[in-house]
Amino acid sequence: MSLFGRGVLLLALATAVFTVVAALIGRAPAKRAWYQASRRGMYALFGLFAVAVGTLQVALLRGDFSLENVAGYSSREIQWYFKITALWASQAGSLMFWALILTGFSAIAVYTNRARNRDLMPIVIAILGALAGFFALVLSFATSPFATVDVVPENGSGLVSALRNPYMITHPPMLYLGYVMVAIPFAFAMAALVTRRLDTGWLTSMRKWNLASWTFLGIGIVLGAKWAYESLTFGGYWIWDPVENAALLPWLTGTAYIHSVMVQERRGMLKVWNMVLILVTFALTIFGTFMTRSGITSSVHAFGARTVGPYLLGLLVVTLIGGMYLIITRLSYLKSSHSLESYFSREAIFLYNNLLLVGLAFIVTWGTLYPAMTELFTGEKITVGTPFFDQVAAPIGIVLLILTGVGPLIPWRKASPKQLRQRFLWPTIAGLVSLPLFLLTDARGSWPVLVTLVFAVFTTVCIGMEFWRGMAVRHAHGGVTWLSALGQIISRNRRRYGGYIVHMGIVVVICGIAVSKSFVTEGQFQLRQGESATVSGYTFTAISLTRRRTAQAMRVEAAVDVKNASGDHVGTLRPAMNAFTSNPDMGVEVAIIGGPTRDIWMYMPSLRDGVAPFKVFVNPMVSWIWAGGAIFLIGAVVAGWPEGRRRRVPDPVVEAERAAA
Amino acid sequence: MIADVVLIALLALALVVGVSWPLIAGGHEVVEVAVDPARVALDDEITASLQAIKELQFDHQAGSLSDDDFQRMERAERANAARLIRRRSELDGDS
Questions:
Q1: CA–centroid distance for A353 within its chain
Q2: Residue B2 pLDDT grade (very low, low, confident, very high; cuts 50, 70, 90)
Q3: Confidence of residue A69 (pLDDT cuts 50, 70, 90)
Q4: How far apart, in whole angstroms, are the C-alpha atoms of residue A525 and residue A492?
Q5: Of A102, A42, A108, whose CA–CA distance to B18 is shortest?
Q6: What distance in Å separates the CA atoms of residue A344 and residue A413, rounded to the nearest whole number?
Q7: pLDDT exceeds 60 at position A645
Q8: Which listed residue, A429, A435, A466, A521, has the most CB atoms within 10 A of its CB?
Q9: Are B61 and A422 inside 8 Å of each other by CB?
Q10: Helix, strand or coil, per DSSP, at residue A157
Q11: Residue pLDDT, tens place only, B31-56
């Protein structure tokens, strides 16, 4: 199996080299056969990586412990679905999975563009083929998924407990989908630069790819936060860990790109900026992969093996230098059609939003790399902690929240004072009215939270009014109910209204983050069976503390009854800890009672002499983050849903031309 | 071991033939989609232009654009759409 797998990867490397060469020769119109061969090469690459991944999956499911990746990340006892997900637990396995997704998306892009972008496609295929070749090279010579062990063990080590979690089934693939999809718009952008075909045609082709990659990254980040919340022992969902940051960075620049590309489509502006953004977004996906696999930062998410760092660094450098060279040498083709006419226009708001997002990305990058840089140059070990990132992100987040509401309400080109008054009257009144109401709550204890909530109300009303105005226009045409009007405006302009739904999801997420970060209550206590302790008005009573041996581990577990300040039963928490027999890892099972206003989170690290220590967090509004993530996903699906075939309606331009004729 | 080598050899053979078939066939392979890419690009541009006109009208009705801005922007977009449609007609006439 090892020989076969290695052979398939070498075939993939040879195919990638052929595909790149054939695509470059196929650029000439007279060499159509070469172009067709390069397209077939792209399909073949997907097939080869599918065979390679399938081979490793079979080994994982059959328990072929002669392979390092099976012996190190699987065992006879673990469930079959964790044997499948063990593919992305190892560095080599995850890179091969990455290559499979890359070549899969590349094949889809090549197929769907078979009748489009003929000038661009050979270069697109060459770039995507080169990327696939890079992964085949790394998997063949730097970190083989089919490496064998010297002595075949009876059983494998199994997965560490943090990876035996349902969110680990979905979180890494989502992030990979997001990371890898960025390669497609990047390849098209670079091809447009190479061929100097810098009209908006390729931008239109890439809309769905941009949106899909950004959505997958966003959902991957939320799922990762949920995994951390339910699997790790710090009681939170985000600690600005280097690898968390590495996933956030391309999402931030991707968010900037999704907005600024609308300015290019509508006003022919920001062409250079958009090229830089797409280059930086793709470079950040490689940077994120480098962070996880180079060992330059320590993280709960990082892979142990560090053999691929130099390869990824090389790819990053080549990408940045090559991309910047193309942008600089094509500057004359990237001139804006218009200039900014007013600082109160939609394009100006998008520009502010871009500057803030990119500024935040820069600060997060700096904060993430600073410890490694300091150690490299001075030998001194320092850390940049959560407070630094929180202090920077909070004000930027609040301004972004305001722009989220303001942007859609301001017209393109420029806004008159009268328009501004009309548009912002009700949102401003709603925000001002909400202020005294929030002052009646605990929010008065934190001015950043107060400001966030007031502007969340402002932005929500802004978004609501956009829906209302659209419905009013549709309803005024007659023949539809208000509900039908809502359905029609969404179905007829999915991109716009899907975007508003995404904005609403972001507002909900920001509210959840602001409140949960500011008003968390932590408590630590020890209990014997029958004893009680109180944290933040909740009384915790240990009903049972047990220790038992299961098939896979020695397990200690507790049942803790929770009552609120009124004495009402809130629920029973059942935290547990497993000491596995197959590896030295301790399997944590935190317990959570969730709710719309607060979560009660509990962790029990041990049980000795009938006494169990407990760590408890009362986290307000964490569930809003997950709900916001769900709204975000719904909005993104609406925005990206394919347009259906519509009844042909008279075209205003054609009608005008006919009338003129 | 031998089975693995044979399998890889068969896979390599299939790969060489499958991928390089357009070259082996001397470039006489049937063109998969007989659509003029320029025509497809033009269709995309026309669709985008018509969509832009609809959005301008919607924005104007919803109060997001002043009358002056709407008239100027819509006039420019209509002229653009008409130019594109004329070009498509010329292209269709040529073919």
A1: 19
A2: confident
A3: confident
A4: 57
A5: A42
A6: 8
A7: no
A8: A466
A9: no
A10: coil
A11: 444 556 677 778 877 887 888 888 88
Tell me which amino acid residue B93 is.
G
Q: How far apart are the C-alpha atoms of A159 and A85, rounded to whole Å?
A: 10
CA distance A453 to A458: 9
ipTM: 0.73
Best CA proximity match to A444, nearest among A519, A512, A394: A519
Q: What is the rounded CA–CA span in Å between residue A307 and residue A531?
A: 52
Provide the number of CB pairs (under 8 Å) joining chain A to chain B.
124
Spatial CA neighbour of A172 closest among A266, A303, A35, A23: A303
A463 vs B73, residue with greater confidence:
A463
As given in the structure block, the two tokens for residue A122 are 């050979």
Q: What is the pTM of this model?
A: 0.88
HEC secondary structure over A528-555: CCCCEEEECCEEEEEEEEEEEECCCEEE
Residue B93 CB partners (closer than 8 Å, separation 6+): none
Tens-digit pLDDT profile for residues A325-350 = 999 999 998 888 778 888 888 889 99
CA angle A222, A203, A327 (to 5 degrees): 95
Chain B: give the shortest CA distance to residue A423, in Å: 9
The predicted-structure confidence for A193-233, as pLDDT tens digits, reads as follows: 999 888 777 887 788 899 999 999 999 999 999 999 998 88
CA distance A594 to A507: 20
More confident residue, A580 or A145: A145
Share of chain A above pLDDT 90, in %: 59
User: Which of B6, B15, B54 should be substituted to probe chain A, the one whose Cβ sees the most A Cβ atoms within 10 Å?
Assistant: B15
Contacts for B36 with CB less than 8 Å, ≥ 6 apart: B91, B95
Distance from CA of B82 to the nearest CA of A (A): 6
Contact B41 A117 (CB under 8 A): yes
Helix/strand/coil for A602:
strand
Interface of A with B in 393-422 (CB under 8 A): 409, 411-414, 416, 419, 422
Is the Cα torsion angle A120, A123, A129, A134 positive or negative in sign? Answer: negative
Is the CB of residue B37 less than 8 Å from the CB of residue B86? no
Give the ranges where A410-493 is alpha helix by DSSP (H): 417-439, 447-476, 482-492
Lookup result for tokens 């004729």: A661
